[in-house]
Design a protein that fits this description.
Blueprint: E1 5-9, E2 12-16, H1 20-23, H2 35-50, H3 53-58, H4 64-76, H5 79-95, H6 125-134, H7 137-148, H8 158-176, H9 182-195, H10 221-226, H11 232-237, E3 276-285, E4 288-294, H12 297-316, H13 329-341, E5 344-347, E6 349-350, H14 358-364, H15 367-375, E7 380-383, E8 388-391, H16 403-423, H17 442-449, E9 468-470, E10 473-477, H18 481-490, E11 494-495, E12 507-510, E13 513-516, E14 519-520, H19 537-552, H20 556-568, E15 585-586, E16 595-596, E17 606-610, E18 615-623, E19 644-653, E20 671-672
Parallel strand pairs: 3-7, 15-16
Antiparallel strand pairs: 1-2, 3-4, 5-10, 6-11, 7-8, 9-10, 12-13, 13-14, 17-18, 18-19, 19-20
Helix pairs in contact: 2-20, 5-7, 6-7, 9-16, 16-18, 19-20
Length: 681
């Protein structure tokens, strides 16, 4: 599916339309699975060329040859190489800039770094020259978005999975040869014991997670509840009253009626659970896939309970000064501050979730925590494509409920270790003295060494800027970066030097926030989910979100093309000849799943006047993930099997003269229903 695009060029109107047959040679799926999304990417990317802020500011349009050359280079392929080469230019653009001193004006190219001659071959070379001369961060933000626009393309390529598995195997081999220094791990254990304040009487409440599990045909909470099976390891290590919430004073026995949905299944006669996780690969971007594991049902059930208990201890302990699992804004604030002061660095790791060695966990976690971490861990991974089961060295892969909190604790303890080492005047490679006074009271050490506010360091007391850890996203005082990276390397983690930003570099990135010289330059990606022919609900939602974000960045040609494509396409479950495409426009940003517009008209939708309420209502659709309702007889579109619901939105109460309803521009309210529902704002 492709829609024609019309752009204004300096030598007249430019019209083009990308057909699936033109991009079939770029599709590596072998089945045409990627053709439609590649066509949409090319057309949207070409529109983004016309969204240059220089054109908006000066009115001087680009010649048609610029657009044609870009499209020809795109279609020459290979597609992954084309996108990757542009992304490399984006990295050079932001990583080569020199750091400005406080108060230094943003001009004369002082912020732009070395000239990049390869930019001559891009359609935004004029914008780059202007950025290089002026250092205008609005131009930088546009350039960065343009160069990385295709990086998140939803692309099906089995070769990426094979490459990812080879990388997964190489991490396992690297972990197998690791040895750990007892002096370092003993100190880390003391630090973790002081960072996490585990309650003695917290209830153990296992629960089902939202993701898929290893067992086949078990999806959703009801199926998971019915499919829960006996496991001797879980029974022995976790269901014996150690959390003091059940079985206490009753021989510490297991009382399944207090914790299991169906206690009758908890015996070996009814069947046993599997004890391995299943390895899968999911796309990370157009150039690589990442590994993820589906845990066995009973193990995920137990892991969720242990993870909640662990999070409670983190909320009560000193680690809360570094980690907030519910909020990433702390990392972004520190990255922003570091981008214009150089006082805070951001550290990026490669395959961090796969690099936490189980022996490292055994050595650095206090026994009280370790018991439950190992009790709910699966040690084997099953690869369905080959049928082999592999004993792994990693503690918990991505997909385990314990992967994220354990990473946060491990990396935070390393940051605190580095601060104590620095406080003693020692360098990377030295060891913290076992009798160090900083190890006696870790909460006091944290409050003494780390500032509570960004940019404020009390002379003679707090020595370092605040630090933040969110999974493998680490923001740390620049004076500690060398020690932290050294410790990470010695403990089996690979620091990605090219994507770690420090010192004189003006760029910082953490938790999805990109900052350059104190300015937010977070890029606009092409994040439309892959589709073929008719568009499903996931692709509809992603296309709406992309169009809204393009509008926020004032990429008007790109926004218009995405909207026109969406309005012209065929939706799964909607008959094209039965009704116009029921996509809602709204001036209310709180209505998710609607296209944002300052003056929504919605003349393409079906309206009715609800008698006797005398309320005007409009028929549109809304994606509701994970919920499925039986349709009523009044529903027009059979959308429930694609997780759609009828979404009826009213437009005010009272009589509206004929012909006026479609032209009103007031805000739209909304309410879920399976029938005609009035809205009273």
């Amino acid at each position: 599916m492709a829609r024609g695009v019309v752009l204004d060029a300096s030598d007249g109107k430019l019209r083009f339309q990308t057909l699936a047959c033109e991009v079939v040679h770029l599709d590596t799926s072998g089945s045409g699975e990627n053709s439609d999304i590649i066509s949409l990417l090319l057309d949207s990317w070409t529109c983004l060329v016309a969204d240059s802020p220089l054109i908006l500011a000066t009115g001087e349009k680009k010649p048609s040859r610029v657009y044609k050359t870009f499209r020809r280079n795109f279609l020459t392929g290979p597609l992954r190489d084309f996108i990757a080469n542009y992304a490399k230019l984006a990295h050079r653009l932001v990583s080569s800039g020199s750091h400005l001193l406080p108060g230094e004006p943003l001009c004369k190219g002082a912020h732009t770094g070395a000239f990049i001659p390869e930019m001559r071959n891009t359609p935004v070379f004029k914008e780059y020259l202007e950025w290089y001369k002026s250092g205008d961060t609005e131009l930088l933000s546009y350039l960065y978005s343009f160069l990385v626009y295709g990086k998140k393309l939803s692309f099906l390529d089995e070769e990426l999975d094979s490459t990812a598995f080879r990388g997964w195997e190489s991490v396992e081999k690297r972990l197998a040869g690791l040895t750990f220094d007892d002096d370092v791990t003993n100190v880390l254990r003391r630090i973790i014991a002081g960072l996490v304040d585990l309650p003695d009487d917290a209830p153990f409440r296992p629960k089902f997670g939202p993701g898929a599990v290893s067992e086949k045909n078990i999806r959703g909470r009801i199926a998971k509840s019915n499919g829960l099976r006996f496991d001797p390891k879980i029974d022995r290590m976790l269901f014996r009253g150690q959390f003091n919430n059940y079985g206490l004073n009753d021989e510490l026995g297991f009382h399944p009626e207090k914790i299991l949905p169906d206690p009758s299944t908890w015996n070996s006669a009814t069947g046993r659970s599997i004890q391995y996780s299943t390895l899968r690969f999911v796309p990370k971007d157009v150039t690589k896939s990442r590994s993820i594991c589906m845990e066995p049902n009973i193990y995920m059930f137990a892991q969720q309970g242990v993870a909640d208990w662990l999070r409670l201890g983190m909320e009560r302990g000193a680690i809360r000064a570094f980690v907030n699992i519910e909020d990433q804004s702390r990392n972004r604030d520190l990255a922003l501050y570091g981008s214009y002061t150089g006082a805070v660095d951001t550290i990026d790791l490669s395959s961090a979730s796969d690099s936490v060695h189980v022996d490292l966990v055994r050595r650095i976690f206090p026994r009280r925590i370790l018991y439950y971490l190992l009790g709910s861990r699966t040690a084997d991974v099953y690869r369905s494509s080959t049928g082999e089961t592999i004993r792994v060295q990693k503690f918990a892969p991505m997909g385990s409920a314990l992967c994220f909190p354990v990473q946060c604790i491990v990396f935070t303890s390393i940051v605190v270790y580095a601060a104590i080492l620095k406080a003693h005047g020692l360098a990377a490679g030295d060891g913290v003295p076992s009798d160090s006074p900083w190890l006696e009271n870790i909460p006091h050490t944290v409050s003494s060494l780390f500032s509570r506010r960004v940019g404020y360091i009390q002379p003679g007391r707090r020595l370092f800027q605040p630090a933040a850890v969110y999974g493998d996203d680490i923001c740390v005082d620049s004076s500690l970066t060398d020690i932290v990276t050294h410790l990470l390397s010695t403990l089996g983690f690979e620091v990605n030097i090219s994507k770690s930003f420090r010192g004189a570099q003006s760029f910082r990135e953490s938790c999805g926030g990109f900052y350059y010289g104190g300015v937010d330059v977070t890029p606009h990606y092409f994040r439309v989910k892959r589709y073929r022919g008719k568009i499903g609900p996931g692709s509809v939602a992603s296309m709406i979100a992309s169009a809204n974000h393009a509008g926020d960045r004032y990429f008007l040609y790109t926004r218009r093309h995405l909207i026109h494509t969406l309005m012209d396409c065929e939706l799964l479950g909607v008959r094209k000849n039965e009704s116009p495409n029921p996509i809602l426009f709204s001036s209310n940003r709180e209505i998710q799943g609607a296209l944002y517009s300052l003056r929504p008209r919605n003349t393409h939708l079906r309206w009715r006047n609800s008698s006797p309420l005398q309320v005007n209502e409009v028929l549109c659709i809304r994606e509701v993930a994970g919920r499925r309702l039986r349709p009523s007889r009044r529903e027009i579109f059979a959308l429930e099997r694609y997780l759609y619901l009828q979404w009826w939105v009213t437009r005010g109460v009272g009589e509206v003269p004929a012909g006026e309803a479609a032209s009103r521009t007031d805000e739209v309210g909304s309410r879920l229903s399976r029938e005609w529902v009035p809205w009273r704002g």
